[in-house]
Specification:
This protein has 11 helices and no strands. By secondary structure, the protein is mostly helical. The longest helix is centred in the C-terminal third of the chain and has 21 residues. Helix 1 runs parallel beside helix 5, helix 4 packs across helix 6 and helix 5 packs antiparallel against helix 6. The protein has one domain. The chain is globular.
C-alpha cells in the first residue's frame, strides 16, 4: 500500500511542476498568470510569448505524463493492495493510476495555489503510452482543427472527444481487438470529460466569440506591453 501511495504522490508532484510559470519567468521575467487568459498552460504561453515557447512548454507538460507512466510506475513492487478486477496486469493498472495522478497534479498544482493548466498536454503524454493509435488519431484531429480555426482550446476539446470515438470505431467497426477495451474505454471517457471540464470557460468564450486565437508570430507585443 505504501509503495502505491508513494507512486501516486510522486506522480502528482511531477505533474504539479509549473512548467509554464518557470519558462515565462526565465524567458521574459513575468508570471504567465498575469497575462493573456491568466491560465498556467502552454496555450497561454503560446499566445503571450510566441509559438516556440508555447510548444516547448507543451512538450515539457506531455513529458510529465510520460515520466509518470514509464518511469515512476516502475517503482511498483509486490502485489496490489486491492483486488485487480480489470483485464490489465497489475503493472499496467499502476501505470494508469500514475498517469491520472500526474494529470491531476498539472490541473491542481500544489506549487501554484492549486491553479494549474488544463491538463491536455500531460494527458496526451500519459495516453500516448496507453492508447497510442487512438491518441495519434486525436493529435491529427487537433492539428487540423487548430490549423483551420486558430483556436487551441477548440482543438483540445475535439481531440478529447476523438480519443474515445477512435477506440469505439476501431473496436466495433473495424473489428480491431484492443486489449482491455471494456476497461480502458471508461477510463478514456473519464479522462476526456475531465479535460473538457477544465475547458468549460473556453467553451463559453467560443460560443460568444471572445475566445483568443493563436498567432505564430514570435510574441504578442500588445499583451506584454
Amino acid at each position: 500500500m505504501l509503495n502505491l501511495f508513494f507512486i501516486v504522490t510522486l506522480s502528482y508532484l511531477v505533474g504539479s511542476i509549473p512548467t509554464s510559470i518557470i519558462v515565462s519567468k526565465v524567458v521574459r521575467g513575468i508570471d504567465i498568470r498575469d497575462y493573456g487568459s491568466g491560465n498556467a498552460g502552454g496555450t497561454n504561453v503560446m499566445r503571450v510569448l510566441g509559438w516556440k515557447h508555447g510548444l516547448f512548454v507543451m512538450i515539457l507538460d506531455a513529458l510529465k505524463g510520460v515520466l509518470a507512466v514509464i518511469v515512476i510506475a516502475r517503482i511498483f513492487r509486490g502485489n496490489m493492495p486491492f483486488n485487480n478486477a480489470t483485464p490489465f496486469d497489475d503493472f499496467t493498472l499502476v501505470q494508469i493510476i500514475a498517469g491520472i495522478a500526474a494529470v491531476i497534479g498539472h490541473i491542481w498544482t500544489v506549487f501554484a495555489g492549486f491553479k494549474g493548466g488544463k491538463g491536455i498536454a500531460t494527458a496526451l503524454g500519459m495516453l500516448l503510452m496507453i492508447a497510442t493509435v487512438d491518441m495519434l488519431i486525436a493529435v491529427g484531429a487537433f492539428i487540423i482543427v487548430v490549423s483551420i480555426s486558430k483556436y487551441v482550446s477548440l482543438g483540445s476539446i475535439v481531440a478529447a472527444v476523438v480519443v474515445p470515438l477512435a477506440l469505439v470505431i476501431r473496436e466495433n467497426v473495424f473489428n480491431v481487438n484492443i486489449p482491455g477495451y471494456h476497461t480502458i474505454l471508461p477510463f478514456i471517457i473519464a479522462t476526456s470529460l475531465l479535460v473538457i471540464f477544465t475547458h468549460r470557460r473556453n467553451v463559453v468564450r467560443l460560443i460568444n466569440g471572445s475566445e483568443s486565437k493563436i498567432s505564430f508570430s514570435k510574441k504578442n507585443k500588445s499583451t506584454l506591453g
